[in-house]
Structure formats: C-alpha cells, structure tokens
Amino acid sequence: MSGAALELVCPAGTPAALRAAVDAGADSVYLGFRDETNARNFPGLNFSRDELAEGIAYAGRNGCQVLVAINTYPRAGDPGPWHRAVDDAAGLGAWAVILADIGLLDYASSRHPALRRHLSVQASAANPETIRFYHDEFGVKRVVLPRVLTVQEIARINSAVPVETEVFAFGGLCVMVEGRCLLSSYATGESPNMNGVCSPAEHVRYEDRNGRLISHLFNFAINVFAEGEPAGYPTLCKGRFQALNRASYLFEEPASLDVIRMLPALTEAGVTALKIEGRQRGKAYVAQVVTAFRKTVDAVARGKEPAAADLAPLTEGGRQTTGAYEKTWR
Amino acid sequence: MSGDVKLTLGPLLFNWPAEQVTAFYARVAERLPVDTVHLGEVVCAKRTPFLAEALAEAAGSLAAAGIEVVWSTLGLIADAKDVEATRSLVESTEGLVEINDITALPMLEGRAHAVGPLVNIYNEGTLQWLASRGAARVCLPPELPREAIAALGRADAGVALEVQVFGRMPLALSARCYHARAHGLHKDGCRYVCDKDPNGMPVATLDRQAFLAVNGIQTLSHALLDLSAEAGELMEMGIRRFRLSPHDADMQAVAHVWRDLLDGRSDFARARRIIEAVADFAPRANGYYHGRPGAELVA
C-alpha cells in the first residue's frame, strides 16, 4: 500500500483471531500471554509460548508483525512472571513488547536492548514531556496514546516528540485515564493494573426483580433494565448511577469508540498507527472490523474520503462515539 | 521507634472557597499535631487561580509553626498550560515537591522529591528506579495489599515509605469532568460546580447503596479508608509516614488520635470510635490492605 497508510494494529485473543486478523489485512497483531501479565487476562483467552511461536510464524509469512502486551504492573515480591514474559517475547522473535511499568521498562531496556519497546496506554503518557521521558530513559519507540486527547492535541504531540504514536480507533472506550483507575478493584478486588481485568465476569450477577433486570458487579448494582430493555455487560464506568437525585449514565453511556470517519484528520495529525481494541472478541468480529478498517485506511491513503463502513452492529449498545477526540466530550 | 514516625496531611482534594481554605490551614498550623502538610492543587488546574493566595498564606503560617510544607503537583498533567504550571511550581519551590504525574519527574532533573499515590508504584523495580532518580519519599497507591507493602518495605530502596490511612480513596481521574456532566455542563463551562460538595458529590447505585464520590475530574471512594487497626503492622513493615487526607470534618480530632496511635498512647479501638464519630458521612473501609475489594471493611 501507499507509504502514507496508517499501520493497522489488530487484536488477537486466540490463535484463530490472530489468523483472522492477518487474513483480513492487519499490518500487525497484538496479543498477550495466558496469565496476569497482560490487561486482558480473561478465562479462555491469550497465548501459550508455543502458540505465540506459531502466531509469529503465521504472521511473518503474511508480512505481518506480532506485538506482545505485557502491560500490567508486576507484583511486589514476585516480578518473575513479568520478567519471563519479556524474556520469552524477545526469545520467540516478537517485533515489540508493549509495556507500562517503569521497573519493567528498565528491565526490558537493560536485558533486551534490541527488543523494540512500545509504551502501553496503561502508562497514560498524555503530553510531549512524558513521552520524551519514556523515550530518553527507556528507548521507547512508540507510544499508545491515552483516549483522553483531542485530535488537535495529538497533532501537537506528534510535532514535538521523537517517537511514533498509536491511537485507539475502534472498540471499547475507557473514560478514565488508563492505568490510573481503581474502580474495578474498589468494587471487586481485581483491577486492570494488578490482575489484568476490569469488572471481571466472575463477579457479575444478574437478578430478576419484579420484571426488572438488575446487573450486579460483586455487591454493587451497576444497572437496572426495564422489561424488554436490552441489558448490557456491567462494566463499572458504563453503569447507571444516582447523583443529584437523578439516575443517569454518570460517567459514560455504553458506547464503542469509532473514529473511522476521522482517519484523514488523524493521518494529518501525524499518527503512525491505529489500534483496534478487542482481544476479548471472537474471530468473526475481528475479521469484520479489520476488513472494514483495511479498506478505509487504504482509501484514505489514496486521498479518498472514508466511506461509512457500517460497524454499528458490532458496537456496544449499537452506539458509537468519537470519544475525547472531539473536545465537546469533556 | 515511634519518634521517627511522621504524620502527614495530604493535599486538599476538594474545591473549598478560599476563606474556608485559609481558616482550615490556620487551624492546622495552630492545632494539628502533623509533621508535614501538602499544599497545591492536585485535581483540577481550573481551581488554581482562586486558591493561590490562600495557599501561599497557608504555607507561611505552617512554616512558622514548624510544620514542613510539601507542594503537590496536579494528578493529570494534560495540556501545555498544565505542563507550564507544573514547571513553574517545580522551579519556584525551594522545599520538597511531590509529583502526582510522571510528567513532573524530568522537570526535577534528579532533585530530591516525593512521589504521590497517583503515580503507579507497584513493585521494587519501579521503586528502586525512581529512588535512583531522586525519589526520597513515596506515598503508595491505595490498592496495594499488605503483602505488596511489606515487599516494598523489604526492598530497602532508601526511600521513606508513606501510606494513606484516613480519608476517601482516590480511585480514578478522567479528561472529563463528572461534576460538570452531572450538572448538565461541559468541563470548559463548568461554573465550578464542584464547590457544592466539600467532601465530593455522593454517587449511589440505583438500589440506593452509597458507592462513590465525584470530585471534578476525580472519582473517589464513598467509604473512608481507615487503617488505624493496621497501624502497628504498617510500622513493623517499615512504613515511616502516615497520611491523612483532608475532609470537611473534624480533622483536628483525627490527627490527634492518629498521633496518639503512632506514639503508643492510644489503641485502635479508641481510634475507631473517634474516627467513626468524626467521619459520620461515610462508612470506614480497609479492604485493599487485606486483599479484598477496597470498599469492604475487614474486621
């Protein structure tokens, strides 16, 4: 494709999803090991060492690269699993590791200087000063930008930093600053930073109360649905709560980020890569989203306006948002 | 041993009127048995202009009372204005600065500093790396369980470790202001509605269970962290500094009972009674310390 095309970074929760992403035209695929070293530590997901080796080979045959997310925070007194994850990603020939913890960045840059390091969104580096810090101290080559920035701010960052930037394009949307949110562990005891999970399914319970459906996360009601109202998953920050004597989606309505129409602006802003969220999704979802983005990214690289790919059925509550990329979101 | 255990008053997180801020710190200077007080706006840069004078005055009276003043940076340093305000704080402060966002670290150029609980320090590797860059004190993130705190204590990184032991727990920050959003406003035109809730805006579940407290772009716990029963164990782990987070409540009583607790003049049963009476607007919690949900109270 044209050299100006945005790199399409696609999620793989399983080897089948990896193949689906590669076949649909991913430029790179990101994944994690099957343990708490990555932020999608869900049952039945992720890769063994052997599966990673096979995944890297399959991707490589198709001109695609593999990135390994090791983006939770190592446990005090027990950094072994995180160190081994970095060692094995390097040993198996991953293109890059995606890290958030300063201690782990230090480990990776001193033990595996040749292994390319990306800064995870979980490190929430949101301005040029912080990004330069991670570049200067740990040789970070790319930063995944937090979903809190406007397109104008992204452009300003790109003109000021010596690293590539990657932005979220589609999928789940964190409304809190990533890597700095303890809401999940406050309610359930398990957090993205320490356990690689947010609002984990094992703590979800649905209760039928006089025809109304109540979704609980551990001991807290996250939403109440009237009869016939479609019930979503109780992700804590997408719940309905009571404040000022009014029930509302206080933090954010259930919605998925979709910036497909903003691709020209993001290209103009100097972004290198687009990230599609969804390692917890199945291969059919991955294939469909990657196909739509592949088509649009290539069209935009040829100077065309993005066509309205209809991804609405794949979004949360069928609702799309451009999130913080537009300032009115705040 | 208790002689070198210090009591810290963390930064005021809420948007109080300047007169209330002035009166509060006058009382702190006069009557609170604390060793260190943190000043500076941590939550929202938009509040800063209204408080600059009150905080400068507070710094003067605290210093005159022999209390150490530490200036805390913003927790979310997002745009160029925030960066420049932080740089100016770092450059103009002679004493210790507490960083609450990594952005401030390179500005310090290796100078000795404190690191606040909004910076992710989960393990020895990070603690030691930050110590090598000048971190002299570290207040640990609230979600760390006992085992992690103990491991960090054992790491012996040459850093004075601090733990928040009283007050609502900082849980999240956002680019979006939820106070403004709840009032049907945007952050840019927020009308400073966060000043309506001196301890944060109560957020309940739809079945009326108190849950969280919104403070501008910050989300806090509804429950008040109370680690008075754990104070002895924390001291044994090598924790040398104990942080109280200021609330619109009788902080004098809280500080006194904590001073007594640290000096061995009070037991935690008395501390609990006093804290329950003072902080009657929310239940106590200590779940994180015990590896449980942060909202829980483990007896």
Structure description:
The complex is a heterodimer of chains A (330) and B (299). By secondary structure, chain A is an alpha/beta fold. Chain A folds into two domains: 7-173 and 255-329, Alpha-Beta Barrel (TIM Barrel), CATH 3.20.20.70; 183-248, no CATH class. Chain A is built from ten helices and 15 strands. Chain A has an eight-stranded parallel beta barrel, surrounded by six helices. A three-stranded antiparallel sheet of chain A has the order 8-9-10, with no helix packed on it. Chain A starts with 6 loop residues before the first strand and ends in a 9-residue tail after the last strand. The model of chain A has no long low-confidence stretch (mean pLDDT 93). Chain B contains ten helices and twelve strands. With 299 residues, chain B is of the alpha/beta class. In chain B, helix 4 links the parallel strand 4 and strand 5. Chain B is globular, with a radius of gyration of 18 Å. In chain B, 33% of the residues lie in helices and 21% in strands. Chain B has a single domain (2-170, 223-290), classed as TIM Barrel (Alpha-Beta Barrel). The chains are: A alpha/beta (330), B alpha/beta (299). At the A-B interface, helix 4, helix 5, helix 7, strand 10 and strand 11 of A face helix 3, helix 4, helix 5, helix 6 and strand 7 of B.
Task: Write a brief structural summary.
The complex is a heterodimer of chains A (330) and B (299). Chain A has 330 residues and is of the alpha/beta class.
From the structure above, extract its key features.
heterodimer, A: 330 residues, alpha/beta, TIM Barrel, B: 299 residues, eight-stranded parallel beta barrel
Number of strands of chain B: 12
How many helices of chain B in DSSP terms? 10
The run of helices and strands of chain B is: EHEHEHEHEHEHEHEEEHEHHE
The CATH C-level name of the largest domain in chain A is Alpha Beta
Q: What is the helix tally of chain A? A: 10
CATH topology (level 3) name of chain B: TIM Barrel
Q: Write the CATH fold name of the largest domain in chain A.
A: TIM Barrel
CATH homologous superfamily label of the largest domain in chain A: Aldolase class I
With strands numbered from the N-terminus, the spatial order across the biggest sheet of chain A is 1-2-3-4-5-6-7-14
**Overall mean pLDDT score of chain A?**
93
- Helix content range of the residues of chain B, please? 25-40%
Please give the CATH architecture of chain B: Alpha-Beta Barrel
